[in-house]
Amino acid sequence: MNTPPHLSPDERLKEAARQFQYPPTPDVTGTVLQRLDNGSRPRARLRSAWAVTSLLVLLLAILFAVPGVRAEIIRFLQVGVVRIFPAAPTLTALPSLPQAPVTATPGIVSSDTTTSPNNTQNEPRYAVTLSDMAGETTLETAQARLSFPIRLPGYPDDIGAPERVFLQENGSMVILVW
């Protein structure tokens, strides 16, 4: 690199640059395009598949947030084993009650075996009506004969005094009937 001394520094630099041996310029464009063709496109496809999958998951999450939509999706996809289908209510017959009310003290009513499936060999059935009960008295007489106070209910407010009072088992039990 011999440059004449009478040149200015700028001209000497230009002259030195003309004489300098540069290395050959690599084919950068071709190398980048080759890399894009070989390896980057499957990654781009993979990224787009992830994006689509993410959008579908987000859409399903939004849909499952609404209870009515969630129920229809589950019904459509047949998720679960047990199915409950609402049906209209049906009328059912009430069990028949005996004609005479059953009370605490049993008495023989009849030996009818057709009314009770458990009766065998003409066993008697027990029921007692109020007219069959022994020991009818007044509230004042029952209170005088008992060793404990008779407590009357306070509800409803207008219940009043009992209509009938029965003193049972040697004065140890009282039955009040309204």
Question: Topology of this protein?
Answer:
Layout: H1 9-19, H2 28-64, H3 67-77, E1 108-110, E2 125-126, E3 136-137, H4 139-145, E4 164-168, E5 173-177
Walk me through the structure.
- The structure is a single chain.
- The chain is built from 4 helices and 5 strands.
- By secondary structure, it is α+β, with helices and mostly antiparallel strands.
- The strands form 2 sheets. A 3-stranded antiparallel beta sheet has the order 3-4-5. The protein has a two-stranded antiparallel ribbon with strand order 1-2.
- Mean pLDDT is 76; it is low at 110-116.
- Helix content is 37%, strand content 10%.
Number of strands: 5
Query: What structural category do the secondary elements indicate?
Result: alpha+beta
Strand order of the largest sheet: 3-4-5
Principal-axis shape equals: rod-shaped
Q: Determine the strand fraction and express it as a percent band.
A: 5-15%
Number of helical segments with 4 or more residues = 4
Biggest sheet features: 3 strands, antiparallel
End-to-end separation: 135 Å
- Nearest-angstrom radius of gyration? 53 Å
The poorly predicted ranges are 110-116
What portion of residues is helical? 25-40%
Q: What is the N-to-C order of secondary-structure elements (H for helix, E for strand)?
A: HHHEEEHEE
Mean pLDDT: 76
